[in-house]
Design brief:
There is one protein chain. With 401 residues, the protein is an alpha/beta fold. It has two domains: 190 residues, NAD(P)-binding Rossmann-like Domain (Rossmann fold, 3-Layer(aba) Sandwich), CATH 3.40.50.720; 189 residues, Rossmann fold (3-Layer(aba) Sandwich). Helix content is 41%, strand content 16%. The chain has 14 helices and 14 strands. The strands form three sheets. The protein has an eight-stranded mixed beta sheet with strand order 3-2-1-4-7-8-9-10, with helices on both faces. α8 crosses α10. The longest helix has 32 residues. The chain is globular and about 75 Å long. Bound molecules: ligand SAJ. Belongs to the UDP-glucose/GDP-mannose dehydrogenase family. It comes from Acidovorax delafieldii 2AN. Keywords: NAD, Oxidoreductase. Pfam families: UDPG_MGDP_dh, UDPG_MGDP_dh_C, UDPG_MGDP_dh_N. InterPro entries: 6-PGluconate_DH-like_C_sf, NAD(P)-bd_dom_sf, UDP-Glc/GDP-Man, UDP-Glc/GDP-Man_DH_C, UDP-Glc/GDP-Man_DH_C_sf, UDP-Glc/GDP-Man_DH_dimer, UDP-Glc/GDP-Man_DH_N, UDP_ManNAc/GlcNAc_DH.
Length: 401
């Protein structure tokens, strides 16, 4: 098969390389010229364990090429971002402009029999929209081109393993689309392949991330309740989780990344009256960084000129991804408030990447009056607790216990 992958980010690039190493001829397309050049030279522009090795072997085999322009092929996979934007007073409306642009870009290259797969996490009805865009500009392709939603479900940090092992949902507009998509995913996916219609597939993916968001909100709300009552939240959760049917997630400084903090809004936008719990959970999680900042302010008020040490900047542990990171938002806000001297450190973030300087962990642990743990990176879990006994500690992740 010849496969065109539109978008070479965290999903498109691993998928394109995986398909190429399974013997397909793959053309990866991206609007970013630097990404295209980097990939063609066998390197990567994003950080994900083992992805560099996979991309290098895919490029060296001759099966993976990157370009700014698509070509004709058998299957087209759309893996572009679906963020939100403000529309008609709704600040969190889905922004489908990248999906629409990618679809319009492939339209001239489509032939009868082609399959178009939407992998981007999308609001209900987007696969139908993609099909409509195609047949509106090429009416002769009506009924001749197939479309399906096959949502990506991989966890950043474990993308390559999950790409192969996770079960995969396929929601085609037609039976033929489902069968064609199944054959493609079978070539690299060991998980079960589950067929449904496009709208159910779209909602299932949104529901997965909303489920996680609601459960994290529950944990975050518990952390605020426990703080109010002077009870240890980590112990409370650990004890409650000993019940055979209770499994509470972990509180943190807020929910980051480009998925969990975004996707629930697509459900809220589609069903604003009905999605009450999902909306509230989003608000609970979005409020958590402000709560942490208030805690720091209250502790800082006890010092004349406090040194505040912030541990961690990424959106979760042991990755280098800063997108929508609550830890980074908190540090930026503390810098803006200028309530003391701020030392921030993150072993996974390159110095010079941010607008403020990073401090070495050793210096933060030595100089800080107040330590604010924001990300539970492995390095922080190894901190000798005796060495920080004299400090005020705000541990948003329960890593310094
Ligand atoms: N978090 C907590 N407490 C927890 C778990 C997570 O505060 O107990 C926070 C993290 O620190 C982070 C945020 O939630 O800030 C999101 O992290 P995550 O590990 O839950 O998820 P992502 O965004 O890295 O990836 C999710 C995954 N979805 C689910 O687990 C249902 C992944 O499988 C999806 O493919 C991905 O979203 C996506 O692309 O949609």
């Amino acid at each position: 098969q010849k496969i065109i992958v539109m978008g070479l980010g965290y999903i498109g690039l691993p998928t394109a390389s995986m398909l190429a190493t399974k013997g397909h001829q793959v053309l990866g397309v991206d609007v970013n010229k630097d990404a295209v050049e980097t990939i063609n030279s066998g390197h990567i522009h994003i950080v994900e364990p083992d992805l560099d090795v996979l991309v290098r072997s895919a490029v060296n085999s001759g099966n993976l090429k990157a370009s700014k322009e698509p070509e004709e092929g058998d299957t087209f996979i759309i893996a572009v971002p679906t963020p939100f934007k403000e529309v008609d007073g709704n600040p969190k409306a889905p922004d489908l402009s990248y999906v629409e642009a990618a679809t319009r870009t492939i339209v001239p290259y489509l032939r009868p029999g082609n399959l178009v797969i939407l992998e981007s996490t999308s609001p209900v009805g987007t696969t139908e929209l993609v099909y409509r865009i195609i047949v509106e500009s090429r009416p002769e392709l009506e009924g001749e081109v197939h479309a399906a939603h096959c949502p990506e479900r991989v966890l950043p940090g474990h993308i390559l393993r999950e790409l192969v092992d996770n079960d995969r949902i396929i929601g085609g507009l037609t039976k033929a689309a489902n069968e064609q998509a199944r054959a493609l995913y079978k070539s690299f996916c060991n998980g079960a392949i589950l067929l449904t219609d496009s709208r159910t597939a779209e909602l299932s993916k949104l529901v997965e991330n909303s489920f996680r968001d609601v459960n994290i909100a529950f944990a975050n709300e518990l952390s605020v309740i426990c703080d109010h009552l002077g009870i240890n939240v980590w112990e409370t959760i650990a004890l409650a989780n000993r019940h055979p049917r209770v499994n509470i997630l972990q509180p943190g400084p807020g929910v980051g990344g480009h998925c969990i903090a975004v996707d629930p809004w697509f459900i809220v936008s589609s069903a604003p009256q009905q999605a009450r719990l999902i909306r509230t959970a989003r608000q609970v999680n979005d409020d958590k960084p402000h709560w942490v900042i208030e805690k720091v302010k209250a502790k800082a008020a006890r010092f004349k000129s406090p040194v505040i040490g912030c541990l961690g900047l990424t959106f979760k542990a042991n990755i280098d991804d800063l997108r929508e990171s609550p830890a980074l938002d908190i540090v930026r806000e503390l810098l803006r408030l200028n309530i003391g001297q701020l030392l921030a450190c993150d072993p996974n973030v390159q110095p010079g990447k941010l607008e403020f300087a990073l401090a070495p962990l050793k210096q933060v642990l030595k100089d800080a009056d107040i330590l604010v743990l924001l990300v539970d990176h492995g390095e922080f879990k190894e901190i000798d607790l005796d060495s920080i006994r004299d400090k005020v500690v705000i541990d948003t992740r329960g890593a310094l216990r």
